[in-house]
Amino acid sequence: MAVVPLLSDEELSETARAVFDDIRRVRGTDFVNNFWRALANDPPLLQATWERLKVVMAPGALDPLTKEMIYVAVSAANGCEYCCHSHSASARSKGMTADMHGELLAVIGMAMQTNGIVNALQVPVDEAFKA
Amino acid sequence: MAVVPLLSDEELSETARAVFDDIRRVRGTDFVNNFWRALANDPPLLQATWERLKVVMAPGALDPLTKEMIYVAVSAANGCEYCCHSHSASARSKGMTADMHGELLAVIGMAMQTNGIVNALQVPVDEAFKA
Amino acid sequence: MAVVPLLSDEELSETARAVFDDIRRVRGTDFVNNFWRALANDPPLLQATWERLKVVMAPGALDPLTKEMIYVAVSAANGCEYCCHSHSASARSKGMTADMHGELLAVIGMAMQTNGIVNALQVPVDEAFKA
Amino acid sequence: MAVVPLLSDEELSETARAVFDDIRRVRGTDFVNNFWRALANDPPLLQATWERLKVVMAPGALDPLTKEMIYVAVSAANGCEYCCHSHSASARSKGMTADMHGELLAVIGMAMQTNGIVNALQVPVDEAFKA
Amino acid sequence: MAVVPLLSDEELSETARAVFDDIRRVRGTDFVNNFWRALANDPPLLQATWERLKVVMAPGALDPLTKEMIYVAVSAANGCEYCCHSHSASARSKGMTADMHGELLAVIGMAMQTNGIVNALQVPVDEAFKA
Amino acid sequence: MAVVPLLSDEELSETARAVFDDIRRVRGTDFVNNFWRALANDPPLLQATWERLKVVMAPGALDPLTKEMIYVAVSAANGCEYCCHSHSASARSKGMTADMHGELLAVIGMAMQTNGIVNALQVPVDEAFKA
């Protein structure tokens, strides 16, 4: 259970309802996942988060699938259960194959491993890497 | 300064020297960065880390640039200074443009933001996201 | 389920029972939550943690509600499920309204977001910010 | 040094210049700190971050000083050097005394400590804490 | 539920089956825990992880129980639920008593606490501590 | 530079001076490292931290060197630069050899790696691991 109630469609404020309508329109599905139902308790935060998410995750210099995998990587490093589930599902829906998933996991594992060793050793940054 | 000495080429054990030779051969440069010079204090760890890194970061279902950006994302979430510098430099050398970098940052920021909010709210995972 | 048994009142050592008595007295309720029941497996750790918590969370230069919200913020950043639940409940019991909760979430999200971007960019500290 | 150049006022794009003007206007000082100079490499990210920050950190149900202390708490948990420096400086400028700072540190320390212990023990959430 | 299916013995590829056989042989038990059943979806990652784990956790300059407690400590700091459960169970099976567990928790708590305070204060490293 | 001034012996309050005297007595050296000089700005926090540290790091069911290595492991996972430096130095002074340091790093790296993969996959805890 969440720290706040997950609002049903019937419990939404007017602002929240408009955001839900837009989520449904953009995603082409009636399904609105729990993250938005939790945020709906605070309509301005719901709206700001959704508006920003639409911009950030849109196709651009990086394709949407790459963005989802980067999202999973951050979520794994932060140990965010919900985020790992939801963005892995999203990555799959955007074309992540089992092979790609396997390589994503391998890179996450490698980065975590060297992060831990580098932090433990406090390796100084090479001059060559500085801007 | 590091927690351990950063070994110069003259201070390497035989095993470490062979790893450095391979790093230089694979990367096509004489430059060997501080991470490897720190790990050279423990030749088996140096060797195991390099051998695994070669496999994980090789082209596969994901291209090497995507892998470097995933590496940066994990490192940013973990707050690993050296890793952010070294893998951002590596990503640039593999073709990351300023636009791509900007979008990488935006996704990292978005993921961190929602990770924090989701953790604070402990949003339960939707059934639809489960395998 | 926890990594250790959650001790019932009947299973407490003498030291643990005295701590539970003090928890009940200070909080004015018979309810003792699972954190203390897990710690009760190690009475000296239970006692030291409770004694320190009483001091740290007492009214002082900061009021107890502000302290609870800071606690939630740290717990969200660390992804501690239990801590997010228990300290959000505690903050509500000390007067956190839905509006305050929404703003707490927004600040947590904003801080996480800029933390990730700053880490990824390794922004050097301005001289003006140093003590 | 940062992963990207820190742009001087002379190097700003038109969008970035407008954001810097607004930062100076809102804060009532000519000083623009390094975070914004790093973000200026990506004007849309700069603009979105500043616009959202203005909203999130404005007075509301929580006062600006409480918000800054929550920001420091998240930054400490994430180990973000720049963020700890900049938001501690900001908290001081908004009235955080040495006593308040000491209590902030004590709460951060207490929360980190119990986060670690709770994670190690995987304490299950009490039914009473669920929404 | 996991993000990927947990493969039963009947669903394993040939490579995965060989790894499972080795896990059973080395551990002297028929029980293969969920971590390996999740990794079995990507046999090369399964194999590389198991081969490295065998080397890293083997008796050496540090005894296996000390290694397990270090593993728990990292997992607690990272908030990894599964890892805290599995490596605490493993530490117990290698001789960790309730007293040792209590002291492990106390050290984890102390380290988390000072990590948070040190990060919040950005204490500069003493010259005496540098290699 | 730190977020607060690092107090010299001449700037200490009476309480802080008494703690510094005890640190010098217990450690048998005149050297007092920066962490305590930063905490000295808040004498009650200084005193509480030192009193608890003495208890937690004392010999008990775990020996002091094992405790220092656990401390390093937590600090590496949290990316606490100062803590990695100071507790690695302390571990060396208590007998950590280069071989032991190498194995400590290998376990930290392995744990970080599997933490990241387990979080990304959200592997469910086996019944066998529950208390």
Automatic annotation (TrEMBL), chains A, B, C, D, E, F:
Domain Carboxymuconolactone decarboxylase-like intervals: 44-123
Keyword Oxidoreductase on entry: yes
Organism: Sagittula stellata (strain ATCC 700073 / DSM 11524 / E-37)
Protein name per its UniProtKB record: 4-carboxymuconolactone decarboxylase domain/alkylhydroperoxidase AhpD family core domain protein
InterPro entries, A to Z: AhpD-like (IPR029032), AhpD_core (IPR004675), CMD-like (IPR003779)
Any Pfam family: CMD
Entry superkingdom: Bacteria
GO terms for MF: peroxiredoxin activity
Keyword Oxidoreductase: yes
Keywords annotated in UniProt: Oxidoreductase, Peroxidase
